[in-house]
Specification:
- The chain has 16 helices and 7 strands.
- With 414 residues, it is an alpha/beta fold.
- The protein folds into 3 domains: 191 residues, no CATH class; 81 residues, Alpha-Beta Plaits, CATH 3.30.70; 105 residues, EAL domain (TIM Barrel, Alpha-Beta Barrel), CATH 3.20.20.450.
- Helix 2 runs antiparallel to helix 5, helix 4 packs parallel to helix 6 and helix 5 runs antiparallel to helix 6.
């Protein structure tokens, strides 16, 4: 509201300053020519200086503050101070003119001052105190001076000025009240409109969430995820990788610990997935304990940078070739068991070559199908990082896993 008031006041400042300068110059120089009253000249110099300062302030406000988030209250106070000092300057001039001007000059001065008092109501009504003070300062002191002059004609002008000032003050009060009320309603309407827009945004967001967001995890639901994928497939330039995540054993957790614990696991899983995915990726709870991730990036290295590991299975067979290994920048390569089975015949050149490549390309090697101690010895000598096979353990039922782990822990602890 204060900022709107400052905008109104400064919007009328240029015209007000120009009229004040023109009127003051006319009254001082037109009636005193060719001999100018020294007091009036000093007064005019003071008025000119004041108007110059106000002009600079107005120019600064229009250039620097008008289109910024300025302090409305400070701007209004600064403008009101300048306007009220101007009113005091006019009051001094009128009082002086009652005893140092001829009848024609005094009459012209009263008409000019009264006109400015009436016009001020229209240009200052955004600030109530200034709207009332400006015409009061222009008319009341001068009217009193005329009433005390002892000259009948001047006393009549004093009565007329006193009566006119009362009428002007009444009009000024109504005008200021009306303007301030209008500004209040304008700002109140702006607040109401803003609140309504916020409510519409909130309800729109709520509708979107109900139709597109999984309420438990906060991820896209299946429908929204498919719509996003359809949008991606419209352009041949778009490419993405689709990852499927399934939580093994989740049903047993639900059955044993209850749905509350299960829901907490799903929420934590969604949070962790979001932590390691980019903003441009789409994450979806497909249903139950299944999650889908669409990585928009087509560069595997960017996926690896956020923690995605690329593993090549059964190297040496099918599509698991050296070119694929280089193109995918794999993290782990698993050697097919067919190469391990030939170790007994000392055909280990391929595995040795793979280890040399792993050192150059910085990936880990897993050898599968280890069944004898001789195979283990050769593979370890070749520097293979991980071994697996029946030599270490055969497939176990769930109930036997704990016993197996406990037994191996005791052996390694000795």
């Amino acid at each position: 509201m204060k900022r709107d008031a400052a905008t109104l006041l400064y919007g009328n400042a240029v015209a007000g300053i120009a009229i004040t300068l023109l009127t003051s110059s006319f009254l001082v120089f037109a009636f005193s020519y060719p001999v100018i009253d020294v007091y009036k000249l000093v007064w005019w110099c003071g008025m000119f200086t004041l108007l110059l300062i106000r002009s600079i302030d107005t120019l600064w406000w229009n250039l620097k503050l008008k289109h910024s988030d300025f302090d409305g209250e400070a701007s209004v106070k600064r403008f009101a101070f300048g306007a009220n000092i101007t009113a005091i300057m006019w009051s001094i001039y009128l009082i002086y003119s009652t005893t140092h001007s001829n009848e024609m000059e005094l009459t012209s001065t009263i008409i000019a001052v009264a006109s400015m008092a009436g016009g001020s109501v229209a240009v200052l009504n955004a600030h109530k105190f200034t709207t009332l003070f400006f015409p009061f300062a222009l008319l009341f002191p001068g009217s009193i001076a005329l009433l005390l002059s002892g000259i009948y004609s001047l006393q009549l002008l004093g009565i007329l000025g006193f009566s006119f000032s009362i009428v002007i003050l009444a009009i000024a009060k109504k005008s200021a009240d009306f303007t301030l009320h209008t500004l209040f309603l304008k700002n109140e309407n702006s607040v109401l409109i803003h609140q309504m827009e916020e409510k519409v945004k909130q309800r729109t967001q709520k509708i979107f969430e109900l139709s597109n967001i999984d309420p438990l995890t906060g991820l896209y639901n299946r429908s929204a995820f498919l719509n996003q994928l359809k949008t991606l497939t419209l352009s041949p330039a778009n490419s993405f990788a689709l990852l499927f995540i399934d939580l093994d054993g989740f049903k047993k957790i639900n059955d044993v610990n209850g749905h509350k614990i299960g829901d907490e696991i799903l929420r934590n899983t969604a949070t962790r997935i979001n932590t390691f995915t980019e903003d441009s990726s789409f994450v979806c709870r497909w249903g139950g304990d299944e999650f889908l991730i669409a990585f928009i990036s087509k560069q595997i290295k960017r996926l690896q940078a956020i923690g995605v590991k690329v593993s090549m299975d059964d190297f040496g067979t099918g599509y698991s070739s050296l070119s694929v290994m280089q193109d995918l920048a794999v993290d782990i390569v698993k050697i097919d068991r067919s190469f391990v089975n030939k170790l007994d015949n000392n055909e280990n050149a391929i595995i040795s070559a793979i280890m040399n490549i792993s050192s150059s390309l910085n990936f880990l090697v897993v050898a599968e199908g280890v069944e004898t101690i001789q195979q283990e010895k050769v593979l370890l000598e070749l520097g293979v990082h991980y071994l697996q096979g029946y030599y270490y353990a055969k497939p176990l039922e769930v109930g036997h896993i704990k016993g197996y782990l406990d037994e191996n822990y005791k052996q390694t602890s000795r």
